Amino acid sequence: MPDNSIVVDRLSKKFGEFTAVNEISFETKKGEIFGFLGANGAGKSTAMKMLCGLLTPTSGKATVAGYDIASQSERVKRRIGYMSQKFSLYQDLTAIENIRFYAGIYGMADKDIKQQSDRLMQRLNLVDYANVKIEALPLGWKQKLAFSVAVFHRPEIVFLDEPTGGVDPVTRRDFWEMITQTAAEGTTIFVTTHYMDEAEYCDRISIMVDGKIEALGTPEQLKTNFAVSTIDEVFICLARPDANKTN
Amino acid sequence: MKKFRAFVKKEFYHITRDWRTLIILLGMPIIQIMLFGFAITNEIKDAKIAILDLARDEHSTVLIDKILANDYFKLEAYLTHSREIEPVFRKGKVKEVIIFEPGFGARLEKEHSANIQIIADASDPNTATMLLNYTQAIIGNYQAEQNELQHLPFSIGIHSEMFYNNELKGVYLFVPGLIAIILMLVSAMMTSISITKEKELGTMEILLATPMKPAVIIIAKVIPYLILSFINAVIILLLGFFVFHVPVHGSLLLLLLEMILFILTVLSLGIFISTATSSQQVALMASLMGLMLPTILLSGFLFPVENMPLPLQLISNMVPAKWFIIIIKGIMLKGVGLAIVWKETLILVGFMAFFILLSVKKFKPRLA
Amino acid sequence: MISIRGIGKSYGKIQALKDINIEVNAGEIFGLIGPDGAGKTTLIRILTTLLLPDTGSAQVMNLDVVKDFKLLRRDFGYMPGRFSLYEDLTVEENLELFASIFGTTISENYHLIEDIYKQIEPFKTRSAGKLSGGMKQKLALSCVMIHKPGVIFLDEPTTGVDPVSRREFWQMLHKLKQHGITIFVTTPYMDEASQCDRIALIQNGQLMSIDTPNAIVEQYKDDLYAIITDKRHGLLQDLRRYESAKSVFLFGSHIHYTDKQTQLDKPALNTYLQAHGHSQIEIRKIPPVIEDCFLALMGDLKEDAHA
Fold first, then answer.
1. Where are the domains of chain C?
2. Of A163, B21, B108, B356, which residue is least crowded by CB atoms under 10 Å?
3. Distances in Å between the alpha carbon of A92 and those of A3, A135, C137?
4. Which domains does chain B carry?
5. Residue A94 DSSP one-character state
């Protein structure tokens, strides 16, 4: 399985009577940008938490970077990066302090940390702001830094949970440029979002509705299949089959 | 006026919908008064006492037997000299020492009048008061028994003294203090939180962009808490009266009016806090640290103000609850009227005016 | 209807708005479009009398936003960026409250909100906090409209709302416009520009352009190309390194490209890309969208700042 970074086979998660994730199956290739789309509450977060080894699945099987998410979750955690909109950086620390903290968590050697963090600060044009607390930086810079921190230890797969929530379109474009570059270097990007227009940036997407994956393919394929011109409309077809008619 | 009514209605919805908080607000006074009340009035049994009988005659012996005959007291030490009194207290061995003057029986027979001194350890003021009361009752009984046999009545003078806590804070005193604290909590804390909550949720922004006058918004907000606080105060009064027999010697009407005055004072304080803070958390901390602690520590509720160092005494003057406690203690326990507490009442009115003025100055009809 | 003259506003050192001039006509949907932090909310708060401008003046319905703020507050409707209704009150209680604040009743102006409110009326005894995002928006809009305002200010009403609700929301605004209501709306979504009669593009507190969406697109100077190859992930970097490239932006699966030359040398670009390992190269001339205009104007702004 060298080419597939994530393999999911009929994965389910139930909370009591409620089925949050209902037998989903998919694969991602190495270096692919995989968009995991769905409305709020469709089950995206639950599925993602299982893949990150934070939740045990009720049934089904999945491997991430070749390791089983249920029995080898600690190994999984070492090979992935994670960034969420809510928890990403410590606002009262500086950029370099944040980088070093996270790199330390992943057990990187001090020498590597020093070298790579300096390089990263240069790449992000943050050298002049080395001693500024994160909270004083513009939102777009913070997002980029948070992403850079998530991939700092060179994970095979990086999970992005609604990374662009609350970010304006201009900053979002910058952000997606960074994601694209990271993917070009061979990292698999697994990204959840409820902004349907972001789907166009992904190589392949899945759309989740009520715990099930209702559509899977490249953005072009999905638009062709549903005979519409945007992913927005694909989503509308899936989520509310009757909504289009009233328009 | 219709706007105002709609607004008060909305506030009542907020309060009644959040039933958890409501239960806490209404249940708190009941729980607090029960805790305080029962912790203080626990039944006394086998309290250790010491006796210093400097008379050693028939009367003193019989009286001592009578005192020790019931379950309340247990003889711990029989002292022989007044020098031993202090050490026996200090070691915490006894709660009370009863002293018969030399020639007690003889003076009683000859002069029909003799003295007993009772010294109690008032570091636990409530136990001390009760022990004193029991001892006095037993001595009173003995006096009455003897008087039936005599044609000229005996008179036993009882000189009681409290050690360690000169100004005895008795069983009744926690009720006024508790009223002050609960009113402070409900009025100041809850109003400041409910106003900052609107700022936090952004609803204040919408309200400001409407023709509602800021003063109306605030007054409407305060009214439900005025009522809630008043209900709380009445609950405490009723519980105090029926469960713990705390009397109201003075005018009930005056008492209720003073309570409303105090509620208004702390409400204005709460409004002031809310104008100076922008988040519920800060408002909560400001209310707790800035109001509750000084109220508990400096109002004279737990520690007598007279015993504090001078700087603290001066600071205590700035605690509205101090003046309120003086007022209601006066009305409830001493039965005094406005003629006596007018000064404290005026001080409260002054506080209220000051905070309202300050709030009005700080409150802006715009954001930031 | 709304006239803004030379409005400026600073927070400490940060200049949030610089010399803003806008005239909004009666009965139009006017969109203020720009990213987060561009100054949209500050401007809307000045217009709704909630903030004082440092410089300049503004009139809404011929009333000054500073001097006549008390009078003015009776006549406009305002919907802030966050859902700001009482979540513990029911749908109906919220609406009633706002009706009585303005001294009116639900029945008096029901015709104005009927289209919107009847969709949430089945849930009128439900508390507002338990509504879905789309339904909250409908309630908020009903509350804004209940006192029959002449103009309404909506601050980012579609941010964070799902696509279906977003579309419905714009449909509602077009219906309100038919009632003769002037609508001043801000949004960070460039694709919503086409929903507005006229738009203003704002960035870093500065207006970059005010016009109809079509006119703004027509003012786009360069020839715009959409480029896609089989090696999607490397394309962005390779094009940025291309000597003749003027602007290179990622637009979903394609790259939007403009060239320094007035006439693009397609064969040369083709050769360059092939040399960098790209195949299935597709270079297509496309009409610009508002987002292209915005990015181009932003570039001009930066050049001005450097000059």
1. 2-217, 221-287
2. B21
3. 40, 6, 35
4. 2-39+171-362 (no CATH), 47-163 (3.40.1710.10)
5. B
Confirm if C26 and C182 have CB atoms less than 8 A apart.
yes
C299 touches chain A (CB under 8 A): no
What's the angle, vertex CA B314, arms to CA B308 and CA B318, rounded to 5?
Answer: 115
Task: For chain C, state the CA radius of gyration.
Answer: 23
The average confidence (pLDDT) of chain C is 89
| CA distances for B315 relative to A174, B287, B309, B311, angstroms | 58, 17, 10, 6
Architecture per CATH, C2-217 = 3-Layer(aba) Sandwich (3.40)
Determine the Cα–Cα distance for residues B327 and B346; give it in Å rounded to an integer: 11
Interchain contact C163–A (C-beta under 8 A): yes
User: Alpha-carbon dihedral of residues A74, A80, A85, A90, nearest 10 degrees?
Assistant: 70
Q: State the ipTM, two decimals.
A: 0.80
Query: Dihedrals φ, ψ of C11, to 5°?
Result: -110, 100
Asked if C219 and C293 touch (Cβ cutoff 8 Å), the reply is yes
Count Cβ–Cβ pairs < 8 Å, chain B vs chain C: 73
C233, C240, C247, C254: best mutation site toward chain A, by most A Cβ within 10 Å? C233
**Is C221's pLDDT higher than 90?**
no
pLDDT band at C20 (very low <50, low <70, confident <90, very high): very high
Residue C300's Cβ-side half-sphere holds a number of Cα atoms within 13 Å equal to 15
Cα separation, A226 vs A238, in Å, equals 9
Chains B and A touch (3+ CB pairs under 8 A): no
Identify the CATH number of the domain in which residue A29 sits. 3.40.50.300
The closest of B181, B302, B190, B187 to B236, measured between CA atoms, is B181
Q: What is the structure's pLDDT at B165?
A: 43
**What pLDDT shows up at residue A77?**
86
Give percent of chain B with pLDDT exceeding 70.
90
- For residue A176, list chain C residues with Cβ-Cβ distance below 8 A: 250
> With an 8 Å Cβ cutoff, is C35 touching chain A?
yes
Verify whether the Cβ–Cβ distance B209 to C103 is below 8 Å. Answer: no
| Residue B82 pLDDT greater than 60, yes or no | yes
